[in-house]
Amino acid sequence: MKTIYLAGGCFWGMQKFFDQFEGVLSTEVGYANGPDRAPSYEEVCADSGHAETLRIDYDEGKISLAELLRYYFMVIDPLAVNRQGHDEGIQYRTGIYYTDETTRPEIEAVYGAEEKKAGAKLAVELQPLRNFFSAEEYHQKYLDKNPGGYCHIPARYMRLGE
User: Fold this and answer.
1) Coil, strand, or helix at residue 51?
2) Which uninterrupted H or E stretch holds 73?
């Protein structure tokens, strides 16, 4: 099992999107790469410095890191700074946070291809994970519990794994 952390705007949609793929073993929403203290959702919304982030545990025999990253870039605006969809603020910044330095070349290859495709420097942070704090329980699998909830990811992308 491998793990990657992806910040892509509101974590509700990110979790729903990645949960659909075979090889994704588990996901958890939380707050990453801010101050070294667990924040509340209210503190995150008040610019604590953390990014809404999705932890993805995956079976690399069924889905590669490169595949996960290509899906990630499909559902974010990689040029937007501190904004995705209608959400604005530092907590909605984009980022790829890794814990295994050996994955960096694979991440950089996909990142570089996306940057070339965009024709501009990406606003997506590419950094080691400094910290990750689990979000409150009501945020976990939020769109499964609240099917009509807001999501910046178009509904048509929620069926790619079928």
Assistant:
1) strand
2) helix 65-74
Positive or negative, the CA dihedral 47, 48, 52, 53 is positive
User: Which DSSP state fits 144?
Assistant: H
d(CA 44, CA 25): 27
Instruction: Enter the pTM of the model.
Output: 0.96
- Which CATH number fits the domain that encloses residue 140? 3.30.1060.10
119 token code pair: 């024709």
Structure tokens at 91: 């907590």
Give me the pLDDT at residue 96, please. Answer: 98
Residues catalogued as catalytic: 10
Phi-psi region of 152 (alpha: psi -120 to 50; beta: other; left: phi over 0): alpha
Q: How far apart are alpha carbons 139 and 12 in whole angstroms?
A: 7
- Rounded mean pLDDT of 27-49? 97
Over residues 112-136, the mean pLDDT reads 98
**Residue 41 structural domain:** 2-159
Number of compact structural domains in the chain: 1
